[in-house]
Batch of 2 targets.
Target 1
Amino acid sequence: MYGLVRVLVSRHIGFACHLAPQPILIRANATELRQVVMNLAINAAEAAGTAPVAITLQTSIRRVPRDGLGPGAPPLPRGVYAVLDVVHGGPGMPPESLERAFEPGCTTKGPGRGLGLPAVREIVRSHRGAVWVRSAPRFGTHVRVAIPLATTRARATARRAEPPGPPTRPGALLVVDDGAHLRSLVRRMLERLEFEALAAATGDEGVELVARAPERIAAVLLDVHLPDTSAWTVCQRLHTIQKPFRS
Ligand SMILES: Nc1ncnc2c1ncn2[C@@H]1O[C@H](COP(=O)(O)OP(=O)(O)OP(=O)(O)O)[C@@H](O)[C@H]1O
Ligand SMILES: [Mg+2]
């Protein structure tokens, strides 16, 4: 996820990710949780705008006592929670925006927006957790998400329900791009999404990789401007190696 968020946050904004040293186990829908992190990170990046601020993502484990997690926090049942904090400086939110931040359609960004925080709240609630925001003009914003840790019984049930062996992906994805930076970035992003990723710097190299093991490659991400040959020619050569490739 770090790579994905780093790509979204523009270069002049500092971005730090502090993960808890111990593994955090929750029963959760991974796609939905990714959506939570992405929505919060995008909001932070958009709020920062061109200001030279830093965004910090931090995970931790916290015990919620009977009286809750402190000022401003919604009531949560006692227990141990996985906590995600997204904190940044920048303009912050005036009280009237803060009050309505989770209402669908409440936005400062134009028509069709204002759906990110309501979606985050919906997802977090469906995981029996809570999300809340502290923000003040000029001081920046702190969004906190808390989701209960998996209990020992839930973990045992999840282990029993796990399918044997690693999750199956359709095959390797091949990135063909002469830009070294972009090539390695895309490759790392795919690997973070748990795909097997291969990379080639030229059309010839890409075709050779596919020719060596056509059944291994599920899809090719092809740069349109290649130094050695046209992308169209590469496509045609790939088709002659493996018919089901669709371009
Ligand atoms: N981190 C933040 N800092 C400052 N203001 C924020 C922050 N996050 C949200 N807001 C304010 O809350 C509003 C609602 O956020 P929300 O994510 O729901 O919608 P949006 O970002 O406007 O649009 P989208 O549907 O694309 O997410 C934003 O328009 C913005 O004014
Ligand atoms: Mg948003």
Target 2
Amino acid sequence: MSTHFAIIGNGAAGYRAAKAIRRADSDAQVSIFTEERYPFYLRRQLGEFLSGNLALSEVIFQSRNAYRRERVDLFLMTEIASLEPGDHAVLFASGQRVRYDRLLIATGTRAVPLGIPGLDLDGVTTFDTLTQAQAVQNTVKDVRQAAVLGEGIIGLTLAESLTGRGIQVTQLVSGERFWPEMLDEQASIRVEGILEQAGVTLRRNTQARAVIGAGGRAIGIETTTGETFPAELVACGCRRRPAIDFAKGSGIEVGRGIHVDEALRTSHQDVFAAGDAAEPTAFDEFGQQGAAFCWQRAWAQGALAAASMLGTRAEHVFEAVRLRTIVFGQDLAVIGRGHLAPAGDIQVLELHDEPNVYRRLVFQDDVLVGAIVFGTGETVHELNRLVAEKTPRSEVESTLALTTADSKTDLLPRTFARHCPICAAELVVHHGTRPDAVLRCGVCNTDLVVRWDGERGWLEVRRA
Ligand SMILES: Cc1cc2nc3c(=O)[nH]c(=O)nc-3n(C[C@H](O)[C@H](O)[C@H](O)COP(=O)(O)OP(=O)(O)OC[C@H]3O[C@@H](n4cnc5c(N)ncnc54)[C@H](O)[C@@H]3O)c2cc1C
């Protein structure tokens, strides 16, 4: 009898795990349950879809036929309501019960409801799924002013794509500066600068008290500072938490997310968790503070979960990257505890050695525990490794000095775009990048080497 691998969630972690299981075991029965209506799509590209740069067919990464060809049973619009790990069973919200041999929970996160009046008005939206992105796309045609509530990756995405559509965006920032849980002061200032330069109005120390409506539609916002301003679209890019309610009460250990060990196994032998829903307790020393919200980590963990579910030994590559994104064309990455302020045993080194590039290294007792890189994607891969390997300061400094010295010679004279040879995602290689630099595809996580022959550039898969 073949083994039944069941996966809840068809995002980066779940999809990657299904592909890896099928590749390793052609006899296995592989099922994916997702409450969404579309097959696997590139969630982090929803902003590009909203701004009109990508069509629906470019965001959807794998057609339903491709699942059939690969013999992966895809259950769309299927919400899992509860688990019975003792009986190796999942229960659908419709009441159906399905048995599995090994289960992967890869259900990502959900927005935490804001709890203010007016959220039920037309024109108020969150921005988590392709279905929601389509709904926003259908409404924005008539919108001239929008309010984005909250910071974070979704707030940033919304601000950029709505501005790109010519909409006047006001973004509410709850504290003195942008996203202090993730960014240090310098990085906040740079992100704020980019947003304001693009025309986004930032309202600091301000939260929404209510959405104002007329005739069932949103027409504005009332803030905690007592101001009101007009907005026909109110988009929530608010706090998130792992989507794991269905697992509570099942006996599987949960904290902020589903507790997992280094192999991504939960407290139950045959149940695993990966991606944003998982809380790898063993990685606490990296300061992940529970679950993270990062495509790159989810994608990497999908492969690791598959190996653990198959019982094969996977080389464990720790992903210390907590955020990897592009803000109005600028690379931004936060690795480990990159945002920490200097205090006690925490020392911080700020590097401004290249124009428009900011790098910040955080050491604890002379060991690298985090970094922030703004304005270039070049050293992110290396810094991830250095943080994951708890590298001493002297070694970090010599490694980065080498990179800097190399990068001063024969830098790429212009920016070019190429498709990833593995997943076909479009990647932009910026001028000033060093030929032979290693980039990582943000979609499929493959390491790629930048090649340049003096006139044209291309990307090759890095050989081990
Ligand atoms: C607009 C936007 C922009 C983003 N930009 C970036 C970025 O630039 N960089 C970055 O690193 N990350 C970004 N992210 C975050 C990134 O997409 C996530 O970190 C990543 O998708 C997490 O992958 P995952 O597989 O853990 O979960 P998800 O991709 O969230 O997939 C989880 C799936 O499980 C489904 N599900 C949940 N509960 C159930 C249930 N009970 N039953 C059935 N199905 C269920 C969900 O509907 C969802 O389809 C962005 C996210 C959004 C929404």
